[in-house]
Amino acid sequence: MREIKALLIDLDGVIYNDSERIPGSDKAIRWLQKRKIPFRFITNTTMKSRATLQKKLADFGIKVPESSIFSAAHAAAEYIRRSGKHNCHLLLTDDAKQDYSGLNTNSDKPNWVVAGDLGDNMTFNKLNTAFQKLFAGAEMIALQKNRYWMSDRGITLDAGAFVALLEFASGKNSILIGKPSKTFYETVLNDLGFPPEDVAMIGDDIESDIKGAEASGINTVLVKTGKFRPQDLQRKDVSPWKLLDSISEIHKLF
Ligand SMILES: [Mg+2]
Predict the structure, then answer these.
(1) Low-confidence residues in the chain, pLDDT < 70
(2) Gap from CA of 226 to ligand 1 centroid (Å)
(3) Dihedral class, residue 28 (left if φ above 0, else alpha if ψ from -120 to 50, else beta)
């Protein structure tokens, strides 16, 4: 019997689907808070700043400090700060750009192109400008490489599709920041203060959440919400430790 002492929890597809709360997710988080079970949210969301994510959770009845939310957009800004090369070009929403304060985001000769998802505001011109910066020598930071996500309009292109486009055109590989990057998981585990064997990752993405966490030695819990599809269970290369109908069954992990 494994004893889980702390949790990593994905947001989109686990707590909510885009703008709709997944039934019982607020109660599940309050259940954890009441028992003082430590957790961090870990999300590949590229369109929202940490402050906006915190507010969105609060609107759903989930009150957490901003510091408990680890997003790919925020982690990339930290990566750039640590690199000492602060010139960047952001292929990001205005909201996500808030996480990049103090960096030079209007450089003509950027060190980095940060590639995320702009939803309906992604245009040929923006992609082409990013491509031109890469061609002129910038390195690409991919916030994540998810192929798709479950938005209000159904299955929808995610940032990974645009990263692949830019990698193909520029002939350059990108640096991956979000899940399933080992560094991203290690950063969050460090912050939690528990070794991977004491922690479980709850997610709806068989690749980024389950395969990614498994590779970092973390216990994995797949939920049948969000982008989950029955075919995910037939994969030979990855098998979740536990399967839950939704996060509302969180008590079954303890
Ligand atoms: Mg998800």
Answers:
(1) 1
(2) 7
(3) alpha
- The residue among 179, 175, 148, 176 whose CA lies nearest residue 9 is 179
In DSSP terms, 148 is beta-bridged to 157
* pLDDT given at position 214: 97
How far, in Å, are 10, 21, 164 from residue 17 at the CA level?
11, 6, 25
Tokens of 126: 């923006």
pTM summary value: 0.90
Taking the centre of ligand 1 as the mean of its atom positions, its distance from the CA of residue 142, in whole angstroms, is: 17
Q: How many CB atoms lie under 10 A from the CB of residue 154?
A: 7
**Options 3.40.190.10, 3.40.50.1000, 3.40.718.10, 3.90.1150.10; CATH of 6-44+180-253:** 3.40.50.1000
pLDDT computed for residue 107 by the predictor: 87
Q: Which CATH number is correct for 83-176, 3.30.930.10, 3.40.50.1000, 3.40.50.720, 3.30.420.40?
A: 3.40.50.1000
pLDDT at 42: 97
Distance from residue 225's CA to the centre of ligand 1 (Å): 9
Length of the chain: 254
* Token duo for residue 249: 């069954």
Rounded to the nearest angstrom, the distance between the alpha carbon of 205 and the centre of ligand 1 is 5
Neighbours of 18 (CB within 10 A): 13
Give the count of beta carbons closer than 10 Å to the beta carbon of residue 240.
Answer: 24
Q: Which of 227, 57, 75 lies closest to 147 in space, CA to CA?
A: 227
